[in-house]
Specification:
With 435 residues, this protein is of the alpha+beta class. It has three domains: 107 residues, no CATH class; 99 residues, Gcn5-related N-acetyltransferase (GNAT) (Aminopeptidase, 3-Layer(aba) Sandwich), CATH 3.40.630; 162 residues, 3-Layer(aba) Sandwich (Aminopeptidase), CATH 3.40.630. It contains eleven helices and twelve strands. It has a twelve-stranded mixed β-sheet with strand order 1-2-3-4-5-12-6-11-10-9-8-7, with helices on both faces. The protein starts with a helix and ends in a 21-residue tail after the last strand.
């Protein structure tokens, strides 16, 4: 075949589909495809006018027999695109049912629909956990809550846990803590099993939790998280849910009590003679009430340093307080967050006291008591990012003995309020004084 014959178009503009060996011209295929697009657009307007499927009819995903098609397919003397157009205009069925008969060589233009995928959104079950169903989530929840699963919501009435299940199997949860008036809440744990990530479950879980908290009267929701491999995915979810840009929140340091007890400053400072040290477990009910009453006008400690926060897991072995003139004026509160780990959570001394002597004496007393229990080897302490004096204290006295550090962040969302930048959150933190 010479070049002229090879490149010349067929003399007949209508393709003879009966000859399977005849070469197919690209422009003819494009012509057919454009016709299909035109009919598809037409049917978008006409589908509602088509006859309803009868109850005894076959499902629309059933393959169509080439020899028993509801469409008037062409005979060998008519073009495929003309038949397709006539079929559409006649109102037979729906376009996505169309199956091209085997005698046509355009098998790549198969319009049969695929089986409809189930909506995954309907497969997930979301619920607020209580004593009846919390135990099923034990393998997901933080270890600090395991021993309280039987009466978790009773012991922690400000705690709200929203769980998600797939086929009755727990696969994730969000754990939030509310302030007493429930106007603010903080998400302190957000987890989805790794094999279920990337499917939108986290977004749905966060949306459900927000609705529940908002229904309880929450107007501000903080979400704290640490820097790790999942941070980009979480930040993407937060952006989709209209959270304000994240800001630095705390610095979390980890060390071993065996290393920390070697610090040379532990026995360097002593309390003033008028200030006495006492185990926090000896706090009287009257002192308990007095601290709460003096919070804003006398003691002036921020919510992060509330000595009664997470009181169910306060470690009595090394949590200590100080008294001055018969009143409690400071404390070092620690929490047993795991069987082998103590978190140094809230360090506070009243403003009018010798700050350095009181703060270092409180810290030293807690560390020295901890050193007597090597069976609890791990130490964690948290410093608020806004507290520059305490950051300097940690840098000088604690960082030399650290084994690791981790920066945490906080993102905030407001419900039914104009966006502003808050710097008050419900999370507990180590701090040396007021803001």
């Amino acid at each position: 075949m010479d070049n002229q014959t090879q490149n010349s178009p067929p003399s007949n503009s209508n393709f003879d589909a009966s000859n399977n060996n005849q070469p197919v011209n690209f422009f003819q295929l494009a012509h057919i495809y454009l016709y299909y697009q035109m009919v598809h657009l037409y049917l978008q307007f006409k589908l509602k006018e088509l006859p309803k499927t009868q109850p005894n009819s076959e499902p629309d995903t059933q393959p169509i027999d080439d020899n028993n098609s509801p469409f008037p397919f062409p005979d060998d003397n008519s073009s495929f695109e003309d038949s397709l157009y006539r079929a559409a205009m006649s109102g037979f069925g729906q376009l996505h049912n169309l199956s091209i008969p085997g005698k046509y060589p355009f098998r790549s233009l198969n319009f049969k629909s695929q089986p409809r995928q189930k909506n995954h959104q309907t497969q997930y079950e979301f619920t607020v956990l209580d004593e009846a169903n919390t135990a099923a989530y034990k393998h997901l929840l933080p270890p600090m809550f395991h021993e309280y699963l039987g009466d978790l919501t009773t012991r922690f009435p400000k705690l709200i846990i929203v769980g998600v299940q797939l086929q009755s199997q727990p696969i994730g949860y969000i754990l939030a803590v509310c302030l007493p008036d429930k106007s603010k809440a903080c998400i302190i744990s957000f987890f989805v099993e790794s094999i279920h990530r990337g499917q939108g479950i986290g977004k749905q879980l966060l949306a459900k939790t927000e609705k529940i908290l908002n229904r309880y009267g929450c107007q501000q929701l903080d979400l704290g998280y640490s820097s790790n491999a999942t941070t980009p995915a979480l930040q993407h979810i937060l952006a989709k849910h209209n959270y304000l840009p994240s800001r630095p929140y705390t610095l979390i340091c980890s060390t071993l009590i065996e290393d920390l007890k070697k610090a040379d400053w532990l026995n360097r400072y002593s309390l003033p003679k008028s200030v006495t040290l006492f185990p926090w477990s000896e706090l009287t009910p009257e002192e308990n009430e007095q601290i709460k009453q003096q919070r804003e006008d006398v003691l002036k400690y921020p919510p992060e340093l509330d000595p009664f926060y997470e009181k169910q897991i306060i470690e009595p072995m090394n949590s200590v307080g100080i008294r001055y003139q018969g009143q409690v004026v400071g404390w070092m509160i620690t929490h047993r967050i795991a069987p082998d780990t103590i978190r140094y959570s809230a360090l506070f001394a009243r403003e009018d006291l010798p700050k350095v002597r009181c703060v270092l004496s409180l810290m030293a007393a807690a560390i020295n008591r901890h050193a007597e229990h090597p069976e609890i080897p791990n130490v964690k302490y948290i410093v608020m990012s806004y507290n520059a004096p305490m950051l300097r204290f940690v840098e000088r006295h604690l960082v030399p003995y650290k084994t690791s550090t981790n920066q945490t962040w906080i993102a905030t969302k407001f419900f039914n309020l104009p966006p502003v930048n808050p710097y008050v959150s419900t999370a507990v933190a180590l701090n040396g004084g007021n803001r």
